[in-house]
Amino acid sequence: MKKLLLFSFLLIAAVAPSFGQQLVKYVGPGVPDTCYASYKAVRTRIPPPAAFLANRPLGTKATITVTYTGFTPEAQAAFQYAVDIWQSLLVTNVPIRISATWRPLDAGVLGSAGPSGLYQLAGYGERISNSLYPTALAEKIVGADINGSGAADINASFSSTFNWYLGTDGLTPAGQYDLVSVVLHELGHGLGFLTSKGYDVNSKQGSLSTPPSIYADFMKTGAGLSVADTRIFVNPSVELGTAFTTNDLYFDSPLTRASNNGERARLYAPTEYASGSSLSHLDENTYSAGDINSLMSPQFAPGEAIHSPGPIVLAMFNEMGWFNTAIDHTPYTDTETPRTFPVTVRLRSDGTVTPGSVKLNYAFNNGALTTVTMTPTGTTNQYTATIPNPGSGVRVSYYVEASDNETRRIYTAPGRDAFSTVSNRYSFFVGPDVVPPTLSHTPPAYLFTSNLPYTITAQAADNIGVASVTLEYNVNGTVRPSITLTRGTGNSINTYTGVLSTAAGPIVAGDVINYRIVAQDNSSNANRTALPATGFYAVPVVDVRPAADMYANEFERTTPIDFVGPGFSIATPTGFTNGAIHSTHPYVNNVNYFYRLLVPIRVKADPQIARVRFDEIVLVEPGEEGSVFPAPNFFDYVVVEGSLDGTTWTPLAPGYDARNNANWLDLYNRALSGENSAAVGTPSIYASRTISLLDKFKAGDVVQLRFRLYADGGAYGWGWAIDNLHIQDNTVTPTAQALQGAGVSVFPNPTAGQFTVQTRFDKPVANLEVVVRNALGQEVLRQSQTAVKGQVSLPLDLNKCANGFYLVSLTADGETATRKVMLSK
């Protein structure tokens, strides 16, 4: 099964510089773009820009620091020369940090670079909101370090094996590649000249990240259609893939046209998609070697030197935000007190603010806008205006705008969306508050006694403000004193924590902690939110048990809590008549479910005994044909793992997926719906598995075991079911050898109605039972026999049944073997 390369980023972290009011969200890592070598010899030279030459050696507008790894002194000097060129052109008060590595790369690859992260800004000085900004550009717009002190903003690698020219004069000899040019090019990618995109060569579907990169916001087809506008192009889609491969794609913006004689900038979009190059470069033919705008074309030739980004690239950078006027403002939140509302902003402009252009626009209850020119406060770049008292029961919305003398663009706070001419607005309500706090919390599925004291964490926020967050709990039904959760500071002001400990009394294995979290706001109504909304979370307290020589469980009876872990439970879903371990059905993407056995097993020396045996159904996404566990293209899988310390886990055998059984794979594929499978497991497709403990551990080891289901970010299916678990259970070995081996046969198969089930037992079996079920799991025939030994033949008759597949289950001494028979009358 092929996967479409999609960009679905996981929210990893969020930071808020001290002057700001909203979150800057880290959305995902930047994907580097690659520069390939061309072997067509040219001799061209584009000198550095005048701004660089005029201000040497000390004049810079930005500070760029580089951490060099593996570079020779000569290569480092060439790299630094390229850095100095960018420093003379960019404007930012936040240092740009680069991690650069000099090492062998793939054949034909000169270098690659990309931002360390992509950030989504919302009301933080950006002109366009809800787009992805590379780290360095996001920090420039925000005006603060957002990825941690000392962390790299750009990661870059350059080939140490090419025939480089390491001089800085641009006089590159024939046959050599100019390192200054390649570094200048790759740093351009790290600074924002890149598209977060994907393309599937099989389905011909193209995709863009959600949200799109700020670069992609300006990409248009020859017909002028914005490829990132989902009102025009479905994402992903074949239509988007076509737009990527028609050699008719452009970066279109007012500043770009002004730098290019009124024309759009043609992008590299060859008819055969080039991973790592398509879309994130200027067109090679339009801006060929020797053209002043050729730096960001996809290939470099020997003898080619270009030490300037060129006017088109600089205009593109300025359009994305490297030339910016940020409007810093802390917006109002809801209040119960009617009054006037002074609005104060601070402008950070790379140019000069147009006199009289700083304006406050406000409206009451979505009525007509009122525009007021803001006046300077006397503090540099600070302006103010006042929203009059709206009275009670009124929603106020507003935004601030300004323009600069250089680009004459209008900037707003909050920023506007990429494909809208209507400005976003800040909004707050004046009047009695009836809105309860928002509250989120993920309860633990269980707690080991070693986890105590345990820190409970919740996220709480309110339009008026949170007054308190409280943990109310009991142990085994006995109420204990409530715990007040403490609010965080700085970037964690919406995070509340409290410590659950034994201070109010003992908590031991076997106890159940029942708790809820209650948040109350500061309003006159004292609005409250509780999690869960009714009742309590129930968290069992567990501990690892003493080691045992064997373990057996058919999940048909109430037992102590033997297993713990997220995503699994012992259940009897619809269509099943017996209990078993079941994963969540269906499972979801980006999960790592596991179910841990609390009884460690002391490994036996006998390989016939030191085994884990169980019946299972595995309906998880199959990997690419020929893929090997645990390669990325193996996709989703299930695996049984062991550990000596409960921390480091080792697969007892390679993980597997639906391809491991023909019935599983057939059912999974027959029920495909888009990328996912709607197949539902039934008892008829249970299959047996035996795994050796001695393959990974030695006799005498005390091993903890767990079942794990891993799912990546692509397709998903029904999941995993596990029944009849026997670990080193030698008491059933003779019967198991007969039933689970090849010694059970069904003939004739297919059958016209009458058939025979045959097996052999070398030792006496007290009770033998055969059950036949149809494809729906419904029992259609049952037959028993007692005190059997030797060869056993059981004649069966399905003449009264309809044609189709039937499952024949043969059970003896608690062991079960299954066979499928086809009825065709």
UniProtKB/TrEMBL annotation:
Residues 1-20 form the signal peptide. The keyword Signal applies. SUPFAM superfamilies: Metalloproteases ('zincins'), catalytic domain. Keywords: Signal. It holds the Pfam family Por_Secre_tail. Residues 746-822 form the Secretion system C-terminal sorting domain. InterPro entries: MetalloPept_cat_dom_sf, Secre_tail. It comes from the Bacteria. GO terms for molecular function: metallopeptidase activity. The keyword Signal applies. This is T9SS type A sorting domain-containing protein.
